[in-house]
Amino acid sequence: MSYPSSRCSRHVRACLIFGLLGGLIAAPVAADQATIPGVEVQRLARSSQSWNGHPLPAYRSEQPEITILRFRIAPGARLPLHLHPVINAGVLLSGELTVESKAGEILHLKAGEALVELVGELHFGYNAGAEPVDLIVFYAGNVEQPIMELAEEATGHD
């Protein structure tokens, strides 16, 4: 089968040009790699593992739900032994926080540092410092799924 060469080549060239331009325009750019005048972006965390090196679980297929909590922990205060059945990460805004797993793994955080929390593993946090802890935590769960279970309530974990 033969095609008129000028018409076919113009059509092919146009498809190639628009395809390449579309690919360039649609090419993903990470927000922390983009250059935007007057905007500074700093990556605080990016990981497929929790802070102790264990891999994060796959997301469930139900309706997702994001929860964002702010914790203010007084000096000397300790959170109870608990676990998270959902992936979560946080940023310590002020103070110093120590997180300890039931297995004895310890993480010390200072203001400005981020953490990717343990999932399905018992742990607790405490403020051994002299100033209050201010912590923001983002939970990526599902509708009607708990984001935290106390040790007494946790079943099938640890």
TrEMBL record:
Keyword Signal: yes
Domain Cupin type-2 stretches: 70-138
Signal peptide: 1-31
Keyword Lipoprotein on entry: no
Pfam families: Cupin_2 (PF07883)
Segments crossing the lipid bilayer: none
Keywords: Signal
Protein name, UniProt field: Cupin domain-containing protein
Species assigned in the record: Allochromatium humboldtianum
